[in-house]
Amino acid sequence: MSELVISPKAYIKMIFHAAKYPHLAVNGLLLGSKTSNKSEITDAVPLFHQCLYVTPMSEVALIQVEARAASENLQIIGYYAAAENFYDNTIDKVPAIKIAEKIVENNGSASVVVIDNKSICMDMKHSGLKVWQWNDGKWTKAKHSLSDSRHTLDAVSLLLQRGAMKELYDFDNYLDNTEHDWSNENLNFDLKKILAMH
Amino acid sequence: MYEDLSWSEAKDLLRKWRDDNERKSDEVVQIFEYCLADKIKKLGTERLIILEQVFVAALDCSRIKLAEDCIRVLISEFPESLRVMKLKAMLLEALERYDDALDVLESIIKKDETNAAARKRKVAILKAKGQISDAIKELCDYLKKFMSDQEAWHELCNLYLIEGDFTKASFCMEEVLLHNPYSHLVHQRIGDIRYTIGGQENIEIAKSYYAQAVKLNGNNLRALYGLYLCCSHIATSKAQVTKRKEAQKLATWAMSKIFDITNKSSKQQQKSSKTSTGNNKNSTDIEALEAAFGNLDAKLN
Q1: Which residues of A touch B264 (CB under 8 A)?
Q2: Which ranges carry the MPN domain (chain A) (predicted)?
Q3: Residue B42 belongs to what H/E stretch?
Q4: What is the CA radius of gyration of chain A?
Q5: H-helix or E-strand containing A141?
Q6: How far apart are alpha carbons B104 and B71 in whole angstroms?
């Protein structure tokens, strides 16, 4: 089992996605790189907030994200989701877990990051995430850490208070209007500046 | 953001959201608190309906005290109203006092067997408790009595999707389609569900629903992608050569439409981009999709 490290950018985008659609299930892909004993998640690509269980758009998204990731020397190494029901935070309640299984099929392994809905607040004291990794044919609970955790949590709390999550675009937003950039380049740029200030 | 709205602009905005049935709970609460709370008397005939709207929005944002203030006014105006009783039940729901909420709903149904809203709130409570199969059962019973409630068919479709029962979900969406035969979104959703079930027959059916969606709205990007996926599958399957050739032509056509739509806005994106990356992103995305489905020409020969 490898140690999972989550970058501030990936973490903030995951939390933003869940916070932008508090009454809906959301999901997305996690990009990064793996060595034999460490997995590093460097970015998150938010995918859907409606109808997570149907596959056609997931297939399109997986192909396009994979291509984009490869161009940046990254792989899809994980899947994140926040369940529709406030209290669902276990692996068996993860919506559209099939996507994670597809990642395992293609890459041999994957991490599933579940956002614990009740831990999300305007003053985050801990990550509010739960992680599982594919091991020996099943999902097993795993540990994770946030890079620069205290500053990341301060930053995300401040940004949530300001309503910054509205600036995040997911793949659903892109399909509704292709001017919405699912890779969130502008947001990435802003986050870099904000995180540098912390 | 809403501090500068005049009270009449605020009133109009709230009315628009009521008419469009939009769930902008955060904004509704903000607008009410900034613009309208101290001018309630000026709201005239809309006063009570706005209070109801703010009540529901307050529950959504977990602003229980604000909700209680609103419902206090509504109860004093309409002490015997079943509509207000339903709101009381929603307050109990928000406080997670589900058994008390169910009691209130049952008493509404007893007083009025035709009260649809109370029955649907029962389904909502079951869903909130995570009892999806019970919610499905309750909603099916409801639909036996209220067969033309398309909101309910839509919700039942979602519940079946959660349970992974795609065939039943497709059937529910087809009921929604009966009420909305010209909706490109419903056609596309049925296509999505059929494609998900998979298998040659379902992919053919999905293709026809996607095609109809595109006919109704040529800008429905999901339907275009769906059409492309279905046709690519058919073109590389073991079907007759004529069918495969036809599918390939349609796939190529769909892809060109997708390219048009995605390319149009990549130029706009370039202008508003804060970074200087090239706009080749869209072409690489499309190439990746075509590569994933193989070289269609080669497979047909």
Answers
A1: 178
A2: 4-138
A3: none
A4: 15
A5: strand A138-142
A6: 15
Contact partners, residue B251, CB within 8 Å, separation at least 6: B227, B228, B231, B232, B235, B293, B296
- Domains of chain B, CATH where assigned: 1-77 (no CATH), 81-181 (1.25.40.10), 183-263+287-301 (1.25.40)
Beta strands in A7-117 (DSSP E): 26-34, 38-48, 75-82, 111-115
Residue A159 host element (H or E): helix A149-161
Q: Which residue has the tokens 């937003």?
A: A173
Residue B91 burial (10 A CB sphere; 0-12, 13-18, 19+): buried
Q: Which CATH class is domain A3-193?
A: alpha beta
φ, ψ (nearest 5 deg) of residue B128: -65, -35
Helix ranges, chain B (H):
7-19, 25-31, 47-60, 64-77, 82-94, 98-111, 116-128, 132-145, 150-163, 166-179, 184-197, 200-216, 221-235, 241-272, 281-292, 296-300
Arithmetic mean of pLDDT, A140-164:
94
% of residues, chain B, pLDDT over 70: 90
Range B76-100 average pLDDT: 96
pTM: 0.93
Average pLDDT on B72-76 reads 95
Residue B114 to residues B118, B120, B146, Cα–Cα distance (Å): 9, 12, 9
Inter-chain CB proximity A186 and B287 less than 8 Å = no
d(C-alpha B195, C-alpha A141), whole Å = 33
B56 touches chain A (CB under 8 A): no
Residue type, A173: N
Residues of A with a Cβ under 8 Å from any B Cβ are 23, 51, 53-57, 59-60, 63-64, 66-68, 71, 84-88, 95, 175-179, 181, 183, 185-186, 189-190
